[in-house]
Amino acid sequence: xxxxxxxxxxxxxxxxxxxxxxxxxxxxxxxxxxxxxxxxxxxxxxxxxxxxxxxxxxxxxxxxxxxxxxxxxxxxxxxxxxxxxxxxxxxxxxxxxxxxxxxxxxxxxxxxxxxxxxxxxxxxxxxxxxxxxxxxxxxxxxxxxxxxxxxxxxxxxxxxxxxxxxxxxxxxxxxxxxxxxxxxxxxxxxxxxxxxxxxxxxxxxxxxxxxxxxxxxxxxxxxxxxxxxxxxxxxxxxxxxxxxxxxxxxxxxxxxxxxxxxxxxxxxxxxxxxxxxxxxxxxxxxxxxxxxxxxxxxxxxxxxxxxxxxxxxxxxxxxxxxxxxxxxxxxxxxxxxxxxxxxxxxxxxxxxxxxxxxxxxxxxxxxxxxxxxxxxxxxxxxxxxxxxxxxxxxxxxxxxxxxxxxxxxxxxxxxxxxxxxxxxxxxxxxxxxxxxxxxxxxxxxxxxxxxxxxxxxxxxxxxxxxxxxxxxxxxxxxxxxxxxxxxx
Length: 488
What we know:
Blueprint: H1 15-18, H2 28-31, H3 35-38, H4 40-60, H5 72-83, H6 87-100, H7 103-122, H8 137-174, E1 179-184, E2 187-193, H9 194-213, E3 218-219, H10 229-234, H11 240-250, E4 254-255, H12 266-294, E5 298-300, H13 319-341, H14 352-356, H15 360-379, E6 381-383, H16 385-393, H17 402-411, H18 417-425, H19 432-440, H20 446-454, H21 464-471, H22 480-486
Helix pairs in contact: 4-5, 4-7, 4-8, 5-7, 6-7, 8-9, 8-15, 8-22, 9-12, 9-21, 12-13, 13-15, 17-18
């Protein structure tokens, strides 16, 4: 794995080597961009963004006389606080938090400082006490997390999934007519095609991506217990329900009117469940690919300088699929726990969700690591048609057409067709000669015997190719989000 050079911090420490988790250590190069969503810095920046936008919404409401409507230049300067948010700004928030022992209150005090500076420098009327007006910390947090999840899913996760699985769709269409022996319970079964088996996974992922595209991201801003108590008391003449709805919608979120102190997190559970299903599908795909590689149906391209074993020089291990499987398992353990935990709160709220939700970045980081491994694994495999053909053409594999024969016998009303073929083939290796002799013994017309005479493991693939053509995702449909994100 070609990672970036080892990083050092200001003290010269090898940060990647000293990291406690592989996310910030071994896999740092793959997960670095997640800092923009799941780091402490990012969370503070998103909180600042919500606070600023709430402040601006108050100024826009003519019924709220404590803050006047702001000119466009002042609005621009206020938005620059979060648009140009720096590490120095985040450090200042953490300094304030050391005194307040409250992370959101520290954000409020930081903004009061910055807004006061803007007011002094530009002579703007900016009442600092309207910062965090009538808000509980969860008003800010739930919106910050909803924005984090929405923008991460849209900008990073969905394109990454589409990019990683695009080769599966390509394999489905390229090899839609390439026959191979299927295996049920690990045993040789009726033939299928390579493309059909790939298409199943491509279609399953495509279905889940539709759910992901349709996922709602909810938010609320309604005060300490969800009733607009302070809002209504301070400004009874304001339509706070309409104001809150407009504000939340302005953040491109779906307004939730009925909550306790916290937004109920049901949408987060829904989102995590979708991602967990995608992970489960891909985990199954990795296991299948591992097995196909082990029997030689897929070959792996060798990479110069790569070592497969510290003692066995010949080995080319399916490490990317193994890495993908392992990381998906870790991700799902976290996602499933969070999906079950976050919607549950004692009465109006407790802090178990506050600490648990911080782990979502770890979960998604393992998903991202897995997707990179999947992409790498698929990039280095190729179908070994010769090896697949060996199993289909083997003289001792003709028992797999027994299904076809007994089914045709049923059509023609012959007695005990299944039992007859079971006696002939079960637990035995049957060659072409045995099948030919059995067909010759059947009291069937010449048309039926001719069809049976042309039957072989290679052409007994049913409608596999047509199923791929009609129902597998089209190659041009894959990666739409990735292309959209690249144009931003």
